[in-house]
Amino acid sequence: MKKLATTKKVVGSLAIAGTAAAVAGLGTFGTFSDSTAPLNTTVASGTVDINLAQPSGAFAVPVTTTGFVPGDSLSRAVNLSNNGDTALTSVSLASTATAASILTTDTVNGLQLSVKSCSVPYTQGGTSTAATYTCSGTEKTVISGPAVSTNILNGLNSVNAGGVDYLVFSVSLPAGADNTFQGKSATLSLVFSGTQRTGTAH
Asked: How far apart are CA 116 and CA 129, in angstroms?
């Protein structure tokens, strides 16, 4: 009777050990895998860089003039270039006055601003107090209106990377300015701004 009881205990112990081995074996599988060679993608951001420079031999900019009377004008040449590697959607010109006076608040008889462009560099003549500019190529008026304004400049080469525009800006006092314009002064600040092109898929 004692031997029989001993045998039952041994069998029971083996059954428990076998169950543990079966559970442990449930997480074991064979796995095949593969991967491709690396596909490298490099992204470099573009640069927006527009610059304003004076042509070689040009009369000084900025310029200060006195004794302006109705009918007078002042002109200077500048080169506007896109030195970045990104095309632009637009180029704008903002002209502001550092201090308001009737010269800049009267949009009809006050100071007027015009910007012209030439397909080739302008030929400069005259003197520093009476500069003249001649276009031997195709000339067009880019903007014309009150001296204090913000305008989009259409048809410029500088919207393209590496593009250059040959410009002449002129500030004039209309003949219609009366005695109320005497003894006034104005300082204008002209800033060209470039806006990047619209984002696209690459």
From this structure: 20
Among residues 134, 106, 108, 130, the alpha carbon closest in space to that of 121 is found at 134
3-state secondary structure 6-62: HHHHHHHHHHHHHHHHHHHHHHCCCCCCCCCCCCCCCCCCCCCCEEEECCCCCCCCC
Query: Rounded to whole angstroms, how far apart are CA atoms 90 and 28?
Result: 65
Residue-level pLDDT at 128 = 81
Q: Does position 19 have pLDDT exceeding 90, yes or no? A: no
Q: Are 48 and 194 in contact (CB under 8 A)?
A: yes
DSSP 76: E
Q: Does residue 69 contact residue 173 with C-beta atoms inside 8 Å?
A: yes
Q: What is the reported pTM?
A: 0.77
